[in-house]
Q: What sequence folds into this?
């Protein structure tokens, strides 16, 4: 079959009625990846789609799904999965539940008490109901406050305050000559994923870890607390997983394979991702008596929180008894998987998902994102009933078990790894959603697609496009003239790298599937994260109260799914990606120079006696030791492969232009579909079967969550982390393997460009 296809967003002028009777504006650009005609048809379907998401329905879904606590293993978790299944079927999807069996510990015994150094005090470890908030009183169904996958333990030791408990905080402790060996540390939430805090504490010899929510970060210092405002009340506690997901994600007992009923499991006592020491989260009401009992040096200014006390480091007479024991049970997971089969390319899958499990009622996390998924599904189902036939298969997923460690999505993708590697075009994720600005992270080969979609969606509050608002917000947040100049001139806004924070992580890191992760936020006051107060009452009083941004999320993510499913040529673009990779390589080089400068200066100051001269001689102070100068690393392999990717992306851009220069070259759909198969494979080329050094589950060589940051992602992670840890030999090897992945991708993009050019020119 031959047809005329315009392959990029060349602006062709047309003033006509689309097949759906829609008037096409004279200057409306052709959607990237569509022909003149198919773009017109697509715009018609998209307009219909974007008019459908209904704020009243979004509200109704949230009320139903968050009506009772629905953590993994609870009756309402299963009930929700069955309700979701019925909904997808009602919308016309071919849907089923896929079940897995995973390790999910729940608390058996919890205790935090001050046994010495202050008035005897036992922490309440309990969030009280709020009278006007009906679901906050469902205490018999609420999971107690705890950190899942904490080690069991009963420990007593002196208490030491470690600020956020990240590696640099321990350097400050070293300067004060304070060790946490044999101590229980108390860290505040924030600045790193919570699982990093007990990990780093254990590495420094601590025997227990308490994590509390400081009012300065999400309590009364930041605004009115719940229920008068949206911020964390005195007794609010952040639950959460502390599983050491830096090694692998998903069920701790079945790394690399799906946790099916008959899967071979590690023994529970060897579960490698359990913490090394017991850990418990507490409220600031419970933390205040502990923190005020600490003696010893006053903390540096940046360590001060918002409690009306003098923050001190310890250790002193304050001694704490911490007890934490779990029921180590295997619990069922219920993933809901729903499909619309593709009419032309059923073996090319466009995936879209959000989790459905919560720590408690979870109206914000995750239901605010899940309801958008449902409204998209209902709207797409309606389109199908009126004749829309997506070319590719669309797979909608409602994951279970995200909160404990992305269990539902990771076990599913480990089970279906081979088919997904072959067939998955992209995965579009969302999680919590609120009022404000669009946030996007993901694969840079999809950066242009995300920008194009954002330009077409109106912002509910300002009536600008969500893209324009995103750009203007980025401008006011920018910290340099260069950054502002780029924001005004670069055609696309940069998207962030995806970290480990939600279900897209497994698709990206384990399988090398291009992902996009969307969510609105920035205008609501969030202090209820992972507490019993994250519920319908809170959400409808303090967040996206009229669900206008729920609708906007459905429009953004649904439009993305439609373009991926309907395009003639898949809307991957490599110019933004190549440009981004160049910034990564330059970033590593300048980091190397910065490391050298810092160590040189510090060594000089040590020789000059600057550290000791500036320290108060009446206080204990230990100057840092001199460090070896970092060697010059050879970044040439990375530079060469980044340049190869830049050249390949230019070739691909030229091939697109050639096709368009002919006003939409006559291309056989067969050759286009061959190019598409090559495009699907490009992100896979960035993986390496051996994975990253020391964490083989993480196959992607360009993106990964940081070992000491958790959620926060690192670019070219193996190189960056080896440099941070001053392992120069590892860094050299990591440069070689990242360079190879980039070369492989460049070769694939080159091949796709050649194929496309041949299709366009016949040469
Ligand atoms: Zn979530």
A:
């Amino acid at each position: 079959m031959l047809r005329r296809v315009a392959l990029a967003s060349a602006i062709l002028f047309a003033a006509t009625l689309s097949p759906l009777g829609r008037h096409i504006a004279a200057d409306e650009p052709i959607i990237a990846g569509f022909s003149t005609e198919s773009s017109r048809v697509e715009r018609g379907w998209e307009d219909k789609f974007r008019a459908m998401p209904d704020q009243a329905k979004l509200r109704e879904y949230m009320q139903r799904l968050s009506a009772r606590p629905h953590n993994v293993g609870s009756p309402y978790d299963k009930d929700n999965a069955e309700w979701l299944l019925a909904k997808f079927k009602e919308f016309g999807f071919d849907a089923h539940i896929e079940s897995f069996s995973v390790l999910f510990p729940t608390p058996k015994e919890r205790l935090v008490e001050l046994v010495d150094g202050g008035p005897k005090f036992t922490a309440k470890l309990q969030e009280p109901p709020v009278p006007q908030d009906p679901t906050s009183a469902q205490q018999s169904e609420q999971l107690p406050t705890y950190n899942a996958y904490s080690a069991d333990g009963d420990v007593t030791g002196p208490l030491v305050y470690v600020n956020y408990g990240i590696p640099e905080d321990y350097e400050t402790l070293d300067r004060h000559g304070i060790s946490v060996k044999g101590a229980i540390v108390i860290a505040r939430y924030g600045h790193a994923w919570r699982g990093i805090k007990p990990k780093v504490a254990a590495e420094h010899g601590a025997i227990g870890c308490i994590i509390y929510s400081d009012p300065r970060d999400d309590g009364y210092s930041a605004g009115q607390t719940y229920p008068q405002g949206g911020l964390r009340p005195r007794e609010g506690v952040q639950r959460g997983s502390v599983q050491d997901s830096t090694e692998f994600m998903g069920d701790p007992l079945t790394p690399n394979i799906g946790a099916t009923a008959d899967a071979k499991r590690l023994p529970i006592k060897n579960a490698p991702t359990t913490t090394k020491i017991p850990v418990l989260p507490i409220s600031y009401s419970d933390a205040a008596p502990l923190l005020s009992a600490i003696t010893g040096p006053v903390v540096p200014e940046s360590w001060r929180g918002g409690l009306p006390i003098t923050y001190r480091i310890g250790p002193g007479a304050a001694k704490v008894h911490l007890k934490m024991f779990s029921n180590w049970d295997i619990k069922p997971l219920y993933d809901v998987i729903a499909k619309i089969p593709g009419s032309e390319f059923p073996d090319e899958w466009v995936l879209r998902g959000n989790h459905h499990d919560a720590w408690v009622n979870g109206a914000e996390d995750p239901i605010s994102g899940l309801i958008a998924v449902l409204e998209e599904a209902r709207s797409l189902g309606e389109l199908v009933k009126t004749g829309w036939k997506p070319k590719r298969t669309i797979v909608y997923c409602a994951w279970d078990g995200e909160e404990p460690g992305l269990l539902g999505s990771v076990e599913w993708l480990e089970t279906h790894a081979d088919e997904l590697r072959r067939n998955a075009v992209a995965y579009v994720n969302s999680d919590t959603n609120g009022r404000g600005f669009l946030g996007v992270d993901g694969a840079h080969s999809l950066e242009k697609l995300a920008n194009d979609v954002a330009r077409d969606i109106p912002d509910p509050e300002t009536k600008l496009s969500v893209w324009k608002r995103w750009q203007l917000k980025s401008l006011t947040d920018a910290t340099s003239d260069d950054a502002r100049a780029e924001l005004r001139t670069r055609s696309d806004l940069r998207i962030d790298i995806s970290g480990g924070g939600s279900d897209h992580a497994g698709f990206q890191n384990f399988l090398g599937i291009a992902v996009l992760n969307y969510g609105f936020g920035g205008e609501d006051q969030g202090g209820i994260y992972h507490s019993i107060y994250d519920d319908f009452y809170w959400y409808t009083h303090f967040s996206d109260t009229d669900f206008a941004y729920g609708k906007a999320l459905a429009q953004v993510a649904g439009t993305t799914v439609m373009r991926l499913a309907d395009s003639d040529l898949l809307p991957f673009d490599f110019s933004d990606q190549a440009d981004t990779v160049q910034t990564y390589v330059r970033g590593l080089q300048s980091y190397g120079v910065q490391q050298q400068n810092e160590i040189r200066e510090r060594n000089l100051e040590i020789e000059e006696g600057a550290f000791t001269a500036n320290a108060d001689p009446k206080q204990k102070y230990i100057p840092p030791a001199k460090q070896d100068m970092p060697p010059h690393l050879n970044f040439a392999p990375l530079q060469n492969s980044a340049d190869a990717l830049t050249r390949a992306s230019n070739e691909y851009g030229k091939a697109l232009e050639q096709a368009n220069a002919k006003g939409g070259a006559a291309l056989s759909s067969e050759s286009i579909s061959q190019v598409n198969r090559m495009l699907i494979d490009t992100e896979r080329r960035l993986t390496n079967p051996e994975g990253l050094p020391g964490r083989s589950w993480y196959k992607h060589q360009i993106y990964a969550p940081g070992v000491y940051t958790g959620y926060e992602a690192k670019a070219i992670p193996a190189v960056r982390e080896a440099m941070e840890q001053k392992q120069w030999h590892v860094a050299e090897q990591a440069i070689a393997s990242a360079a190879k992945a980039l070369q492989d991708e460049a070769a694939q993009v080159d091949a796709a460009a050649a194929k496309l050019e041949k299709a366009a020119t016949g040469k």
In short: The longest helix spans residues 575-608. Residues 1-24 have pLDDT under 50 and may be disordered.
